[in-house]
Design brief:
Length: about 200
């Protein structure tokens, strides 16, 4: 769906117009526009009873109808983006949980040798965030290259808007950080004696 600039228009008096198939009439009011629908139909019928008046609506309704397909497409994209974010968080949490479970013995050895809980949490979160940041960088580069495909859905915003990329990357980084925290806290509570027996 391409967004075209508005076409030029000229004013032609109704009586001088040739080959009129339909005429759009605009009425300005200070009150509730929907309350004037009946009066407008009566006035138009009085001017020319052979011409039916249809699609009486406010400018806001006409504008909403014109952008409804684009709004629906953006709603779908928003839903898919939210689902993708949830899947990314669940995936990061699952991978981090599995990695911590695989390293239970190592974590137990570190804690038996004197590692503090805060050091274990920092180690697990840091390793998880390295992978997450690499994924965000690769995803940002790919998104930057694919923005031209979505250019027709955007209105008065550049497809490579820097603020949008910063916000999305920040949200993903925060989600990845939270997804890394639970496995890290669980790892910090590992009993060294139990962990040393873990296989």
């Amino acid at each position: 769906m391409e967004t075209a600039p508005p076409a030029p228009e000229t004013y032609v008096p109704y009586r001088q117009a040739i080959d009129l198939h339909s005429v759009d009439i605009m009425v300005r009011t200070t009150g509730d526009p929907s309350a004037l629908t009946g009066d407008i139909r009566k006035i138009l019928s009085g001017l020319d009873s052979t011409q039916p008046a249809y699609e009486v609506q406010t400018v806001e309704q006409a504008l909403a109808d014109s952008i409804a397909p684009r709004r629906f497409n953006l709603l779908l994209l928003g839903i898919f983006a939210a689902v993708a974010l949830v899947l990314a968080v669940v995936g990061i949490y699952g991978v981090m949980g599995y990695a911590v479970a695989q390293r239970t013995h190592e974590i137990g050895v570190r804690m038996a040798l004197g590692a503090r809980r805060s050091e274990v949490v920092r180690m697990v979160v840091q390793q998880g965030m390295v992978v997450a940041v690499m994924g965000i960088v690769v995803g940002t580069v790919a998104a930057f290259g694919l923005t031209r495909l979505m250019e027709s859905l955007l209105y008065e915003i550049a497809p490579t808007d820097g603020l949008t990329f910063v916000i999305v990357c920040s949200v993903l980084a925060a989600a990845a950080f939270l997804a890394c925290c639970l496995p890290a806290l669980r790892a910090s509570r590992v009993d060294p004696v139990v962990a040393l027996r873990y296989e």
